[in-house]
Amino acid sequence: MTRATALVGIGLYIHIPFCEKICNYCNFNRGLLEPGLRRRYLSALGQEIECQRKTGKVDSVFFGGGTPSVLTPGEINELLGRCRLVFDLEPTAEITLEMNPETASFERLEGYLSVGVNRLSLGVQSFRDSELKRLGRAHTAARAIEAFEMSREAGFHNLSVDLMGWLPGQTLSHWHESVKTLIGLEPEHASLYLLELYPNAPLRDEMAREGLTLAPDEIAAEMYYGSFDWLEGAGYQQYEISNVAKNSCESRHNLKYWSDGSWLGLGCGAHSAIDGRRWRNVSDIGAYIERVNGGVSPVVDEKLLSVEERVSEALFLGLRLFEGVDLSKLKGRYSVDVWDRWGSDLELCVEAGLLHRRSEWLRLTRKGMLLSNEVMRVFI
Ligand code: SF4
């Protein structure tokens, strides 16, 4: 997978906002699964898909959430069927479904595969039960391993595993154990994040009650650098700040976000980016259903970016990629010289060891990957 192939088609993002249990650190757009609401949401989502205009070739579909794996294979098939009617969905499209381990069963997994899902992204987060419990996750480590192995048996050849580090009370060796378990499973792709605690997260209260703290920044840095070293030693290539892949199994869909690509978001709170236009749907599940049922567009926020905003966004997102950004290509596309526009601020980042410039390529250093927010501020 290269950035060029990621840019060929348009990606569809389909938001499934339901979860069977709400994790205590979660800041995503989601709500508790409730049968009536689920039925009405799926009906509205189907209508929103039908109202779309053809967009050009679609080569990736991503069911994200929430927990898309609360849907049955039949429901996923119904949504994909509507997409096939409206869009030019390529037969070789990457079709990803985010799955929580507790929802996995062999029949369900075989069902997803049979309706066209060809990539699963498993939200594991940790392979230690005490950490999973603290995060309010609904699965155990053993269940996560079982779900992974069942996915393989069912016939999935493109699996991704999410892990989260810098958890309350987590030591470096606990983190190391989780990363080692992930490596032992041999997924084609992995996403490793450090926990970001949003201001009102219930996990904060629990930490205060139990007297738990986060490890110091130096340990977080060791967690970050160490894990990518171990993964590289095991044959993975880091291609983005938080993502590694082997056997060319980078996420085609997610590469569109970082490579100045195009995607159409469907469902509540979904964002879209096509050419210079950016828009998003209303976040609230009920409001989304009401709007679609009433024949009102669910779009609540829309803008046309200026050329400068497009370049700054392309840099902001593109620098997340390990290879960085080709400034000459950006100049060819937008006629903006990045160094003329942001050069003095970028020089400071180069001097601080956060950015590396080589000929027309600009990329984050390893230090810059960990401190990427410092660099991204230049473009905000
Ligand atoms: S499963 Fe994911 S989306 Fe649902 S509450 Fe937990 S973290 Fe949030």
Helix/strand-derived class?
A: alpha/beta
Strand order in space, largest sheet: 9-10-8-7-6-5-4-1-11
Q: What's the architecture of the largest domain in CATH terms?
A: Alpha-Beta Horseshoe
- Roughly how many Å is the radius of gyration? 21 Å
CATH H-level superfamily title of the largest domain: tm_1862 like domain
What does this structure look like?
It is a single chain. With about 375 residues, this protein is of the alpha/beta class. The protein has 2 domains: about 5-255, pyruvate-formate lyase- activating enzyme; about 320-380, Arc Repressor Mutant, subunit A. Helix content is about 45%, strand content about 25%. It has 16 helices and 17 strands. The strands form 4 sheets. Strands 9-10-8-7-6-5-4-1-11 form a 9-stranded mixed sheet, sandwiched between helices. A 3-stranded antiparallel sheet has the order 12-13-14, with no helix packed on it. Strands 15-17-16 form a 3-stranded antiparallel sheet. A hairpin with a 2-residue loop joins strand 12 and strand 13 (about 275-280). The protein is globular, with a radius of gyration of 21 Å. The chain starts with a helix and ends with a helix. The model has no long low-confidence stretch (mean pLDDT about 95). It binds iron/sulfur cluster. The site of iron/sulfur cluster has 11 residues, from loops.
In short:
This protein is an alpha/beta fold and 380 residues long. It has helices at residues 3-6, 35-50, 73-86, 106-114, 129-135, 141-154, 172-185, 202-210, 217-233, 252-258, 285-293, 307-318, 327-334, 338-351, 366-370, 372-376; strands at 10-16, 18-19, 31-32, 57-65, 88-99, 119-125, 159-165, 189-194, 237-240, 243-245, 262-266, 271-274, 277-281, 299-304, 325-326, 355-358, 361-364.
